[in-house]
Amino acid sequence: MSQLDVLKNNLKQGQVYRRNDLTKWSKSVDRHLRELTEDGTLEKLSQGLYYYPKMGTFGKTPPDEDVLIKSFLGDNRFLVMSPNAYNTLGVGTTQLYNTRLVYNHKRHGDFQLGNRPFSFRQKPHFPGKLTEEFLLVDLLNNLDTLAEDVDKVLELVSGKVKTMDIKKLKSTVSKYGNAKTKKFFSSTFQS
Questions:
Q1: pTM of the model
Q2: How far apart are CA 107 and CA 101, in angstroms?
Q3: Is 106 within a domain?
Q4: What is the dihedral of CA 121, 117, 131, 171, to 10 degrees?
């Protein structure tokens, strides 16, 4: 059995591989990767990142988002969200965004993985899952970068605070709010 066959036999459909993951099965990784991408076995997603497509009813399926990000980061500590989630808060946000935010501990910058845009943000702290409190704090952390009516959003956020669990919200602001967000909530909690 050739090294290429050994490598192919160890690949699993639907998985994303970093180049370094494949060195345990091949001594000629770059040549084998070139051959496998040329014959369609693997798809190159970005520099050093490859996908072994799973076949679905309508052809090749894209990689699962969590698998893709975990492989790209080499870490499973991350939180993925879309700025579109802010629209669920009922605080006047209406824009739709074609990107995904990835809070993580390793990478910062905008990356195209496959055909999907991701904005990686390196943060020391973020929750394990999205909560309404975190979304509200994160909205204010990012408000200057969004195409929204800032004054209207701030006014509606002040009203929204009155309907939320203040203890949970204060804790979330303390953990995840930037200085400007903390200042806004501090004055809102006092009014």
A1: 0.85
A2: 12
A3: yes
A4: 10
β-sheet with 43-46: strand ranges across: 16-18, 49-51, 43-46
Query: How many whole angstroms separate alpha carbon 177 and alpha carbon 161?
Result: 15
C-alpha span between 79 and 135 (Å, rounded): 12
How many domains are contained in the chain?
2
Secondary-structure breakdown of the chain: helix, strand, coil percentages, each rounded to the nearest 5: 45, 20, 35
Widest pairwise Cα distance in the chain: 74
Instruction: Note the Cα 116 to chain centre separation in Å.
Output: 11
Q: Which domain holds residue 15?
A: 3-63
pLDDT digits (tens, 9 = 90+) for 75-91: 999 999 999 999 999 99
Q: Is residue 190 part of a domain?
A: no
Task: Name which of 5, 40, 44 is nearest 25 in CA terms.
Answer: 5
The neighbouring-strand residues paired with 43 are 51
Residue where a domain terminates, one of 11, 43, 63: 63
Q: How far apart are CA 12 and CA 19, in angstroms?
A: 15
Decide if 156 is inside a domain. Answer: yes
CA distance 163 to 150: 20
Each residue's pLDDT tens digit, 129-160:
999 999 999 999 999 999 999 999 999 999 99
Same domain? 73 vs 53:
no
From 27, 47, 63, the end of a domain falls on 63
**172 phi, psi to nearest 5 deg:** -65, -40
